[in-house]
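Q: Here's a chain of 98 amino acids. Please give me its 3D structure as tokens.
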Amino acid sequence: MTQSAMNQARIIQKSKKEGFGLTVTDTTEAQRKELRIRGGVRVESVEGPAARAGLREGDVIVAFDNQEVTDAKQFATLVKKAEGSRPVPLVVNRGGST
């Protein structure tokens, strides 16, 4: 399995000006089935800190700050709870395999 086809750990740091720089949507049932995941959010747009951390459009974030991501609403709650500008670990699915 190549590095691009597995879950990848990333560290992202919130910027006071830019936030995390992500727009996400819920994964569809078909996407979850294809990726063999239970939840997660699909990255629709990326800029600022998220881009610098190596995130790309189409990535699926399956964990944020050591917590499993279930959907976009829960992800937004996790993002709001992230303290200040400390680095936050992410687990990202890229390439369709886990």
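Q: Can you summarize the key feature?
A: Residues 9 and 91 are 5 Å apart (CA to CA).
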